[in-house]
Amino acid sequence: MTAVSEPTSESELAAAVAEARAARMPLSVEGRGTKATLGRPAQAAATLSTAKLSGITLHEPAELVIGAKSGTPLAEVEAALADKGQMLAFEPLDYRPLLGSSGAPTVGGVVAGNLSGPRRISAGACRDSLIGVRFVNGRGEMIKNGGRVMKNVTGLDLVKLMAGSWGTLGVMSEVIFKVLPVPERTATLVLHGLDDARAVAALSAGLGSPFEVTGAAHLPAGIDRIPTTLMRIEGFAPSITYRSAQLKTLLKPFGSADLLEGASAAEVWRKVRDAAFLVEPRDRAVWRVSVAPSKAAAAVARIRSTLDIRHFYDWGGGLVWIAAPASGDAGSAAIREGLAGTGGYATLMRAPAEIRATVDVFQPLSAPLMTITSGIKASLDPDRLFNPGRMYAGI
Amino acid sequence: MGIAFPAPDESILARRDFIIAGLARLLPPGGLVTSEDERRAFETDAFTAYRRVPLAVCLPSTTEQTAAVMRFCYENGVKVVPRGAGTSLAGGAIPQEDAVVIGVSKMNRVLDVNFGDRTIRVEAGITNLGISAAVMDESFFYAPDPSSQLACTIAGNIAMNSGGAHCLKYGVTTNNVLGVKMVTVDGTVVEIGGDALDAPGYDLLGLVVGSEGQLGIVTEATVRILRAAEGARPVLFGFDTSEQAGAAVAAIIGAGIIPVAMEFMDKPAIEICEAFAHAGYPLDVEALLIIEVEGSDAEMDFTLGRIVEIAKRHGVKTVKESKSAMETAAIWKGRKSAFGATGRVADYICMDGTIPTGRLPEVLRRIDEIVKGYGLRVANVFHAGDGNLHPLVLYNVNDPDEAHKAEEAGNDILRLCVEVGGCLTGEHGVGVEKRDLMNVQFDRVDLDQQMRVRGVFDRGWLLNPAKVFPLDHRITA
Ligand SMILES: Cc1cc2nc3c(=O)[nH]c(=O)nc-3n(C[C@H](O)[C@H](O)[C@H](O)COP(=O)(O)OP(=O)(O)OC[C@H]3O[C@@H](n4cnc5c(N)ncnc54)[C@H](O)[C@@H]3O)c2cc1C
Predict the structure, then answer these.
(1) Which of A364, A365, B310, B355 is least buried, going by the fewest C-beta atoms within 10 A?
(2) Is the ipTM of this complex over 0.85?
């Protein structure tokens, strides 16, 4: 059991970091720990939690911005937005079912992971919604970057660096997002029976149309009984009527599309977002693969030829979730070989600690990028206090 | 004039012949500019009040040549100023006497288009509009649309994280770039990101975009392209007061409507742009909003119906819809030539601060007071949806006193933007223009942290060194 410090203010947070620095004590940085099993097992002596840095600090619906202290439950921010008919555009994942964790995920944790749901393809990733941060660096200094306005190019964009840094560069105390209105109506077109390559082609046709597809997923046989291809459109009610008809016509070459609306459609997109299809069986490892859509189906076929997998596609084919046996290297070599030459890469989202300690959870970087990465780490956290080794050995 | 440049390094100037001979060996004929006359063409950018003739100008044709030049400069301690088309309004591309300009304008080819993946790979010297032109036949386009898009390069857009009128819906440069090839200060070529929607490790791409030529020279980029909407229609809304116009903007967003563009002009700007573009802007109003919607005719009718209803509740005086492609073109020509048209009636400096949109009426009033206080005039055009202001402070460049006052007025305006919770620059970048105001927005620790990150890429301050960070306090690690 490690000591847990839970500062209640920015200055306490900075003091806690300064103290750890003086004691040369590496810290496990967390919100409420719902993603604690994601990443390489950390080598920390104590835990620094943002759980008590909580509360919405700014909400201007007419300016499409919301800010909150980093330990604020995501649910609280989403509820405040919903109250004004708004939402976080990037559809943050709920990792709890997949990782078997419990508790309330925090907004700081969401940012640290920079993982985005289906609307990534049209509204951008978490890092695109994030417009401001405040964080304590490894020197114990309180740093601000970005701000509360959505157009801001003043100085280096450290906001982007904090997103997806998995708590290895600084401890965020506050995050500010730009947000979008909740669409008036949502509809989903559903095609049946397509193989992976045809499905990705259908999704590309939809995404390459003027009809503004905001979700594009494919569930092959093995996820659903028969392969199911999903395309979501959102907007004003009459526009949805019009665009769904146009898309149906456009997609004729791929079959006759059904229209799904309401709770069952929302449920299927939630499952896509959270990779709910791969939660069971729990003894499987789960990977998340990013690759250009046109290369996805062939890469999956290569992986399949050597590995026993279940998989499905989001982001029009650009995101592939893969469940593989959690033995040996959990499929690391097979998956990464299958992706060789595609420019795609894989992240191990779920696996037992022994496996995460031995395989590359995050994609290994080229030598020049690794040099830059080490430099960035040293520039923000010179004594390697924060989550040492969680992303890469030595980082 | 108020902005200092570092004194040229005499030891570099003394070695000019050696440096030029070395560079000449690395570049093809026509790739090295050394004559005084020709170098003068590179002495400034669109921030024309400041000029410095560079030591030499390199115009490489390939990434390899760029890397060779960078390695040479690195080994010889020569400073480098990267350059695209030289349209920076912040002086980001202004050289210095002891520096070599590396311009990417000769690298302007399209390398690969993938409509299925909705991506295009280009050399970084291609113009912004050149990218859209390359995919137009398939009804695709590259979304960020700075008004300078005919001239400015994607390299410059990436360095400045440029925006445009249609960014309210489609985002700015950083939201539309997927990968870059970059030459670092010592001549190493790195690939950051690629053609997938996200990349492993830290978001180095996000860091490079907007880094103003201080982290490396970008030679290639992969960017997202989008299918164009079925149609687009701008509508002019004239109001008696800017308060009404500002309230209408807030109410439109509050009603869940995100138009593709919401552009604001005040009376002086309306008059200047109308005289230039004959766009049919109403001349009897104090504030004009250009609001553009997209979709099929019926969809546009529907959305506009809702917008008009809201505008009426806020006392709109005139509503004028574009009835033809020609009218649409004229409306946008007027807006997009706002700076050029202003330049025909006076010299101007263009500010670029962003404010929380809720503070709009108050800020406009105070800008007016500030500029009048210096005995000058101001025209306001800006992106109303996101609060990115462009007050154009008008002055006479041949009157040193007026020029000084204009600079002071501009600085006061930017201080005001920061005071109300905004920032110094929304899309034009810091450059030299706003360098000495960085302390207004950031504390010492904030700037130190940025400089430490900068130092990872350029420990010796060789890359565009006179820019972004105040000269009086600099660190590398
Ligand atoms: C009339 C007019 C209208 C404008 N409208 C807009 C607008 O609507 N929105 C907007 O955002 N901006 C606008 N601008 C500003 C300007 O056009 C943009 O900043 C543009 O991105 C600059 O591109 P450029 O190719 O001219 O770059 P340059 O001016 O040559 O350089 C800009 C910066 O980029 C760096 N740089 C250039 N090439 C590279 C490279 N290969 N690698 C690394 N760094 C590099 C330079 O060192 C410099 O710091 C406008 C300018 C004018 C004159």
Answers:
(1) A364
(2) yes
